[in-house]
Specification:
With about 250 residues, the protein is mainly α. It has helices spanning about 5-15, 50-60, 65-80, 95-110, 125-135, 145-155, 165-170, 185-200, 205-215, 235-240; strands at about 25-30, 45, 220-225, 230.
C-alpha cells in the first residue's frame, strides 16, 4: 500500500468511528463513479477540509486511465467557482492547482478527440438538419438569454494566439481545405452582394459603439522602405512594400 492509500484509509476510517458536533459531509470511500455503493460501510463523515483532501488523494491513488480522469473531474468540480457554494475554502498551492488543471485538460482533450468524441463517425441526416434549421429559423433571442451571454463574457480576456496555433488555422483554411475553394461567384451574385452592402446603413448606436471601442487606441505603424511613409500595418501590404509605386 503506497502512502496515498495509507493516508486515505486513515482519514476515511477515522470518519466512520468518531462523533463530531461540527459541520460534516458524507463521502463515498469507493467513489460512485467507480461503482461504489451507498451502503453504510462505504460512507464516511468528513469535515469539509478532509473531504477535499480525500478527493485530492484519490487523484493520486487512481493515477491512470479513465478512473484518473473521473477523480480529476471530481476535485475540479469541488473547486469550481459557484456563488451558491461556500464550503471549500481550503488553500492549495498554485503548483498543485496548475498540475490538476493541466492533467484534466490533457485527458479531456483525448476523451473528446477521434473515437472518444460522442459524435465521432456520426452524420446528421437530411431530416435532422431540416428540423434543426426550422427550429432556429426566425427565432429571436430572449433579452434575458442575451443578457446572460453578455454577462458571462464581460471582463474575460482571451490568451494571445500562439504562432503554432495561427499556422495550423492557416493550413486548415488554405487551398482545398477552404470551404470556398473552387467556388465561382457569378456576376449576378456579385451585383446582388454589392447592392445589399451599399444599401446598408449603421444605426447611430452601432457607430457610437465602434467609435468608443477604438477611441484612445494607437494603431501599429510600419515604415515603407521605398517611400519612407509610416502607414498602419493593416493597409501596408496593399499600397506599400512590394506594391509601393516607388518600388
Amino acid at each position: 500500500m503506497n502512502k496515498y492509500k495509507t493516508w486515505y484509509k486513515l482519514i476515511t476510517e477515522r470518519g466512520q468511528t468518531r462523533l463530531l458536533d461540527s459541520y460534516t459531509e458524507s463521502h463515498h470511500i469507493l467513489p460512485r463513479s467507480l461503482n461504489g455503493t451507498d451502503n453504510k460501510d462505504n460512507i464516511t463523515q468528513l469535515t469539509a477540509r478532509e473531504h477535499f483532501i480525500c478527493h485530492w488523494l484519490l487523484t493520486k491513488i487512481y493515477s491512470t486511465g479513465d478512473a484518473h480522469w473521473k477523480m480529476l473531474n471530481a476535485i475540479r468540480i469541488m473547486r469550481a467557482e459557484n456563488i451558491n457554494q461556500t464550503r471549500y475554502k481550503t488553500k492549495i498551492t498554485a503548483r498543485v492547482y496548475a498540475k490538476l488543471k493541466e492533467e484534466y485538460a490533457a485527458l479531456q482533450s483525448i476523451k473528446g478527440s477521434g473515437p472518444g468524441n460522442s459524435m465521432f463517425g456520426r452524420k446528421q441526416t437530411a431530416e435532422a438538419r431540416r428540423k434543426i434549421s426550422e427550429a432556429n429559423t426566425g427565432r429571436i433571442q430572449p433579452p434575458e438569454e442575451n443578457a446572460k451571454q453578455i454577462a458571462a463574457q464581460t471582463g474575460r480576456k482571451r490568451s494571445p494566439f500562439t504562432n503554432e496555433w495561427k499556422a495550423k488555422m492557416s493550413t486548415s483554411a488554405s487551398g482545398e481545405n477552404n470551404s470556398r475553394f473552387g467556388v465561382v461567384v457569378s456576376e449576378e451574385t456579385r451585383k446582388k452582394i454589392g447592392a445589399r452592402i451599399r444599401g446598408t446603413k449603421q444605426s447611430p448606436e452601432t457607430i457610437a459603439k465602434k467609435a468608443d471601442a477604438i477611441r484612445g487606441m494607437k494603431r501599429e505603424k510600419k515604415e515603407c522602405p521605398h517611400c519612407k511613409t509610416l502607414v498602419a500595418v493593416n493597409v501596408y501590404p496593399r499600397w506599400h512594400g512590394e506594391n509601393c509605386k516607388h518600388a
